[in-house]
Specification:
The protein is of the alpha/beta class and 222 residues long. It has one domain: Vaccinia Virus protein VP39 (Rossmann fold, 3-Layer(aba) Sandwich). It has 6 helices and 8 strands. Strands 3-2-1-4-5-7-6-8 form an 8-stranded mixed β-sheet, sandwiched between helices. Helix 2 links the parallel strand 1 and strand 2. The longest helix has 14 residues. The chain is globular and about 45 Å long. It starts with 19 loop residues before the first helix and ends in a 6-residue tail after the last strand. The model has no long low-confidence stretch (mean pLDDT 93). Bound molecules: S-adenosylmethionine. The site of S-adenosylmethionine (SAM) has 24 residues, from strand 2.
Amino acid sequence: MKNFYHVPDLRKGTFARTNIQTIQQRISILQKLFSSVESIAEICCGDCQRQRDEYKSNLGVSSYKALDFLPEIAQHNQSLGIDCVCGDALDRKTMQVFSGSQVIFYGPPLSLDCDAHRLLTFSEVIPSYVDFLRLMVSEISYQGSIVCICPKMTTMGEIQWLYGQVKSFSSEWGLRLIHYSQSTVTGQDVLTEARLKYVELWFSSCLEDNWEVIESEGLPSS
Ligand SMILES: C[S@@+](CC[C@H](N)C(=O)[O-])C[C@H]1O[C@@H](n2cnc3c(N)ncnc32)[C@H](O)[C@@H]1O
């Protein structure tokens, strides 16, 4: 079957992964927003061993679940003891499994074939943020928090538009914060100049709707 989604070319030997500094920044934000975090889901997870390890040791999460479209990636994660499902982020039955998670990170591919070079704009990302949020908020009636990991060039106009869409799905939902994540390392731990990596939109049905803006510096990873 030909993939119509962007998936990594595994012949190149590297799994797509988030840099360690961004993961640590997410932990700081989770600690600030929640008195405790019990369960996290990672959708379009790639190699998520680091997230699982960091969330378990720093937040004490009891449940960490993941999902990826590529069987090889799901199997790789499973071999590391991660509860990882192989499936499509837009499949309703599959996504129902994640509806008990307190926080869902939604990190779809942000570059063509996940090569980290040919970057996609906000409106080019598939599965789109609006389709994922419609499924979770409107169709599955998920209650909790969804962090949309968006391209670094995402504009305020696009954020405002997505916010309007989410509000139309459920008036209970709002945008708690916008996180500009900078980092000085790549996902493969190669040092770089400080650069903006992601714009994260922290939507929630249980937190304030106050559009707080946070800019994280790339901190030395320990
Ligand atoms: C860039 S990678 C991993 C990003 C990851 N969220 C992170 O922050 O490290 C994106 C992953 O999304 C997966 N993917 C692409 N389309 C998908 C879909 N429709 N459903 C589930 N996973 C998908 C790809 O196989 C790839 O492993």
